[in-house]
Write a structure and sequence with these properties.
Blueprint (H helix, E strand, L loop, with lengths): L2 H36 L15 H10 L1 E10 L2 E2 L2 H5 L2 E5 L2 E3 L11 E7 L5 E7 L8 E10 L2 E6 L19 E9 L5
Antiparallel strand pairs: 1-2, 1-3, 1-9, 3-4, 4-5, 5-6, 6-7, 7-8, 8-9
């Protein structure tokens, strides 16, 4: 076999492996995305356990709603536009979910808590479904303006990011979201 044919075969296998890794990262991306947006809704109103701080309540108001993923980087690699268009997140208080029509391929959901008194603001999430059910995912979030947010997530069970970056090899997920509507009724 000529060396160019071997090289082409290796390139195809390498591309297939990269594609498989990106597809595996999509549920994590979805969960992280939800967590990032939902982060401001935390501190347990639905569980009735604690009273929210004024800062957490303010973030809840700004983060609650229906969100469209507009940009994402997973482990240093940009997420394709087709996946961004199909990624919708709904947050309501300290819960999050992806609608069934989401392009993620799963229907993840979970709960989160936020700490808006740190810089950057912190969010912790526990998925209630999917591959990472029950695992703690730590992240940071920022409210850019009334319609735009960003978040960065470490891999489940790993340390919290301190910057809004997703370099290769980090396992981090960086997300940018645009609010497209309120929390749906029902």
């Amino acid at each position: 076999m000529p060396s160019s044919a071997k090289h082409t075969g290796l390139d195809k296998r390498r591309f297939s492996l990269q594609k498989a890794r990106m597809i595996k990262a999509i549920p994590i991306l979805a969960i992280s995305a939800v967590l990032a947006i939902a982060g401001g809704c935390a501190n347990g109103r639905s569980g009735g356990a604690t009273t929210q701080s004024a800062a957490a309540e303010k973030d809840y108001e700004e983060l609650s709603g229906t969100w469209q993923l507009t940009r994402a980087v997973v482990n240093g690699k940009p997420v394709p536009a087709s996946m961004l268009r199909n990624t919708i997140l709904i947050t309501d208080r300290n819960t999050f979910r992806f609608p069934k029509a989401s392009g993620i391929g799963t229907h993840p959901a979970g709960r989160f808590t936020v700490n808006p008194n740190t810089r950057p603001k912190q969010v912790d999430s526990i998925a209630e479904g999917g591959a990472n059910a029950g695992q703690l995912t730590r992240g940071i979030y920022e409210i850019i303006d009334a319609s735009h947010k960003r978040a960065c997530w470490g891999p489940p069970g790993r340390p919290r990011p301190t910057e809004f970056e997703s370099p290769p090899g980090s396992g981090r997920i960086l997300q940018y979201w645009k609010k497209i509507g309120p929390v749906p009724a029902g």
